[in-house]
Q: What sequence folds into this?
C-alpha cells in the first residue's frame, strides 16, 4: 500500500499510516502525552469488530495479547516497578512505597518551606545512613516536595574529579543547566518559558554588577554568548584554581537572584558527600570543606548532605589534625564547617523493624496488584523469612527481594 502511494517504507511512515487507519475506525486513541492505546475492551470485541478477510489470525492474536485493557494507573505502577527491579528509586517510586518516613519528611519539609516562605534557613541538613538504607529514597521524597513547591534545587553526586567540591568551576555550568523548577529544567528554560518573570529578572540584572548579572543582561537581549557567561561555561577552561572563586561567586549571585524572584533561594542536594575523602590529600579536603562552609553560611543556599558514616569519621580525623596544627592553612569557612558539622545531629531514615518491613512488603505487593490486577496475593512472611537471614537486612534488598518473588510467581502462572 505504501509503495503504491509512492512513500518510502520506514517505521515512522508505517506507524503513521497504521495509527491513522486504526484511529478512523475508533480502535485506538491518543492521550494528551501522545501515547496510543486500544479503545476496545477486550480481545473478543476486537476480533468481532474486524472482517476476517482483513486480518489474519496471527495479527489478531498479537493485537489481543498486547493491547489488553490498561488504565493510566496500571501503566504508572508498571513504570514504578521497572525502577524498583533495578534497585534504584524515583520520585514516584519513593512516594508509592514509603513506610515510616513521616517524621523525617516533616523535618525536611519544614526547613525547605521556610526558605521559600520567609527566606530563613538552617546552615545545612545532614542525612546519614549506610548504602541501601534509605538515603536515595529520602532524596527522592525531598526532590518531589521541592518540585511541587516550585523551590529551585540541584542534585549532584559528589566525587573527587568532575564533581569535586574542591573544583566547582567544573560543576557549576552543569548545575545551572540542570537546576530544577518543578518540571522545568535549567535556568535558561525557566526564563524562556516564563517560570521566572523576565521583566523582573531584567530589572534585577540591570541593577547588579556581578558576572552573572552582566551575562544575564546580554543573554536576555539576544546575545548567545551572554549565556556562556551567565551559566559559568567560561570558567571551565582552563582548569586552574583561580577559576574556583569565580564559579563560586556565580553560585552566590544565582542564589541571591532566585531569592529576589520570590523563590526563596537554592537547595543543593549533595549525594555521596562521603567521597570528599577521595581527594588526593588534606589540601583537597580543606578546599571542599571551605566550599561547604560557604554554602552553609550563605543566607539563600541550603545544602542537604547525604552521607555515610565514612565522612563523619574522616571529619573527626581532620579536626584532630587541624587542632594539632593550630589550624594552619585552614580558611575560616573550612574550619567553621568542620566544627559545625560535628555539632549537627544527622537525620537518619528509619531502620526497618519487623512491623515496618511487613508494611513495606505489603506496599510493594499492592503496587504489583495495581500493575497486574490478576496476580495472586503474596504472604509477606515468605519474603521476610529470607530477608532476616541476610547480613545487612537493608531496605533496598527487601524491596528487590519482594519484586523478585512477585515476578517469579508471575512467571509460574500467577499473573495472566
A:
Amino acid at each position: 500500500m505504501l509503495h503504491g502511494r509512492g512513500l518510502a517504507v520506514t517505521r515512522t511512515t508505517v506507524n503513521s499510516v497504521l495509527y491513522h487507519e486504526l484511529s478512523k475506525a475508533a480502535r485506538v486513541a491518543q492521550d494528551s502525552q501522545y501515547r496510543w492505546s486500544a479503545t476496545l475492551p477486550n480481545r473478543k470485541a476486537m476480533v468481532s469488530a474486524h472482517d476476517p478477510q482483513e486480518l489474519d489470525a496471527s495479527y489478531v492474536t498479537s493485537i489481543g495479547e498486547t493491547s489488553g485493557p490498561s488504565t493510566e494507573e496500571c501503566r504508572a505502577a508498571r513504570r514504578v516497578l521497572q525502577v524498583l527491579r533495578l534497585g534504584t528509586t524515583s520520585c514516584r517510586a519513593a512516594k508509592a512505597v514509603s513506610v515510616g518516613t513521616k517524621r523525617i519528611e516533616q523535618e525536611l519539609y519544614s526547613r525547605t518551606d521556610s526558605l521559600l516562605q520567609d527566606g530563613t534557613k538552617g546552615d545545612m541538613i545532614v542525612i546519614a545512613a549506610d548504602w541501601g538504607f534509605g538515603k536515595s529514597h529520602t532524596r527522592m521524597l525531598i526532590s518531589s516536595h521541592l518540585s511541587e513547591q516550585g523551590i529551585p534545587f540541584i542534585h549532584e553526586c559528589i566525587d573527587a574529579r568532575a564533581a569535586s567540591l574542591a573544583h566547582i568551576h567544573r560543576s557549576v555550568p552543569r548545575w545551572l543547566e540542570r537546576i530544577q523548577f518543578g518540571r522545568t529544567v535549567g535556568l535558561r528554560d525557566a526564563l524562556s518559558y516564563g517560570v521566572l518573570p523576565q521583566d523582573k529578572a531584567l530589572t534585577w540584572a540591570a541593577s547588579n554588577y556581578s558576572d552573572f548579572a552582566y551575562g544575564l543582561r546580554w543573554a536576555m537581549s539576544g546575545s548567545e554568548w551572554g549565556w556562556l557567561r551567565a551559566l559559568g561555561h567560561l570558567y571551565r577552561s582552563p582548569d586552574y584554581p583561580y577559576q574556583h572563586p569565580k564559579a563560586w561567586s556565580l553560585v552566590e549571585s544565582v542564589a541571591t537572584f532566585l531569592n529576589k524572584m520570590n523563590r526563596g533561594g537554592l537547595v543543593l542536594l549533595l549525594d555521596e558527600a562521603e567521597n570528599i575523602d577521595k581527594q588526593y590529600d588534606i589540601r583537597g579536603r580543606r578546599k571542599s570543606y571551605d566550599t561547604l562552609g560557604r554554602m552553609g553560611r550563605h543566607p539563600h543556599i541550603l545544602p542537604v548532605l547525604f552521607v555515610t558514616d565514612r565522612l563523619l569519621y574522616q571529619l573527626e580525623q581532620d579536626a584532630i589534625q587541624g587542632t594539632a596544627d593550630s589550624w594552619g592553612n585552614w580558611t575560616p569557612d573550612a574550619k567553621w564547617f568542620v566544627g559545625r558539622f560535628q555539632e549537627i545531629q544527622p537525620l537518619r531514615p528509619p531502620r526497618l523493624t519487623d512491623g515496618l518491613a511487613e508494611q513495606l512488603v505489603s506496599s510493594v505487593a499492592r503496587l504489583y496488584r495495581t500493575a497486574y490486577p490478576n496476580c495472586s496475593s503474596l504472604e509477606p512472611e515468605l519474603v521476610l523469612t529470607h530477608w532476616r537471614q541476610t547480613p545487612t537486612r537493608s531496605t533496598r534488598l527487601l524491596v528487590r527481594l519482594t519484586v523478585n518473588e512477585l515476578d517469579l510467581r508471575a512467571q509460574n502462572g500467577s499473573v495472566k
About this structure: DSSP finds 19 helices and eight strands in the chain. The radius of gyration is 27 Å.
